[in-house]
Design goal:
Order of helices and strands of chain B: EEEEEEEEEEE
Oligomer: heterodimer
Strand content of chain A: over 45%
Distance between the termini of chain A: 36 Å
Order of helices and strands of chain A: EEEEEEEEEEE
Low-confidence stretches of chain B: none
Radius of gyration of chain A: 13 Å
Largest sheet of chain B: 6 strands, mixed
Radius of gyration of chain B: 14 Å
Largest interface: A-B, 24 and 20 residues
Low-confidence stretches of chain A: none
Number of helices of chain B: 0
Helix content of chain A: under 10%
Number of helices of chain A: 0
Mean pLDDT of chain A: 94
Largest sheet of chain A: 7 strands, mixed
Distance between the termini of chain B: 41 Å
Strand content of chain B: over 45%
Mean pLDDT of chain B: 92
């Protein structure tokens, strides 16, 4: 069974550009989580969905960030416009109920 | 509200020595507890978890953790450290107010293994 799939794995962009990160959760999982990891702030939960519905977006840093989950097999995290301080590794994870949360390999984002 | 505290952001041991990474939690209901490991430039990988039953939980790569309710602890141990154990380790507790799988993570402990 394929794990959580994230794309792209690496993204380099210039300040002001739109960035879209993609995630395909494990089939059958009904919860999806977006995290951001930096040296300064560690691992932060940005937003999570349950049954495709956003449950808690209190971790989204500002209006430049938005996330969608149009169906059970796909989610996006968008940053528009991007800023250098958004540079980080973004992880997607999925779980079924309270069972184990499985993480994707991450997207390493660098905003110049 | 739940919380997780990992004592020591950095732990250094010699190869072959005991590894002890400390984790204390707070939860108003019986918790689900997890340890994840993150190797350099990789995502988080489940090391072990406690849900119910036996309080001593064995995980991958020779790690184990013991759930101690009276001490609200879930410390991670390994009898003999290997160079390949160098990584960052995260303790986490499940959020008890929902059934969504949301986890509350500790700040992480970086394990250094010296030859």
């Amino acid at each position: 069974d394929a794990g959580v799939i994230q794309s792209p794995r690496h993204e380099v962009t210039e300040m002001g550009q739109e960035v879209t990160l993609r995630c395909k959760p494990i089939s059958g999982h009904n919860s999806l989580f977006w995290y951001r990891q930096t040296m300064m702030r560690g691992l932060e939960l940005l937003i999570y969905f349950n049954n495709n519905v956003p449950i808690d977006d209190s971790g989204m840093p500002e209006d430049r960030f938005s996330a969608k989950m149009p169906n059970a097999s796909f989610s996006t995290l968008k940053i528009q416009p991007s800023e250098p301080r958004d540079s980080a590794v973004y992880f997607c994870a999925s779980s079924r109920g309270q069972e184990t949360q499985y993480f994707g390999p991450g997207t390493r984002l660098l905003v110049l | 509200a739940q919380s997780v505290t990992q004592l020591g952001s950095h732990v250094s041991v010699s190869e072959g020595a005991l590894v002890l990474l400390r984790c204390n939690y707070s939860s108003s209901v019986p918790p689900y507890l997890f340890w994840y490991v993150q190797y350099p430039n990789q995502g988080l990988q489940l090391l072990l978890k406690y849900t119910t039953g036996a309080t001593l939980v064995k995980g991958i790569n020779g790690f184990e953790a013991e759930f101690k309710k009276s001490e609200t602890s879930f410390h991670l141990t390994k009898p003999s450290a290997h160079m390949s154990d160098a990584a960052e380790y995260f303790c986490a507790v499940s959020e008890d107010s929902s059934n969504t799988g949301k986890l509350i993570f500790g700040q992480g402990t970086t394990l250094q293994v010296k030859p």
